[in-house]
# Entry
Amino acid sequence: MQIQETLTAFFTAENIRDWETYKTFLHPEITWKLYSAEAKTIHGTEEYLAYITKAYENTDVRFTCNFMEISADNTRVIAYLINDKGERSLDIFDFKDSLIFREFEFLLD
# Structure
């Protein structure tokens, strides 16, 4: 699976809340740095899944990827996302062993 297809499938799993499939895209040593009003760092798949599932509790919000750019060496992707509420984020994904190894998410709204 190409990196763009991998990330698209990851986004689809998130939007339909298929956490079992979602987890398969995460490297065991995943680090997610989330920048909003305050910075937060999440380590490992279990902490990542706990945080993301809590974020989606009691909401059916979905998002789309409006733009994706892949690095020349095929290990980094930037994605511009917008959800149903119009909230935007810029995400940078680093891949290792064909899995998401690091995510830097900047919430813009």
About this structure: The chain has one domain: 3-107. The beta strands are 26-35, 39-43, 63-70, 76-83, 88-96, 99-107. The chain has three helices and six strands. The chain has a mean pLDDT of 96.
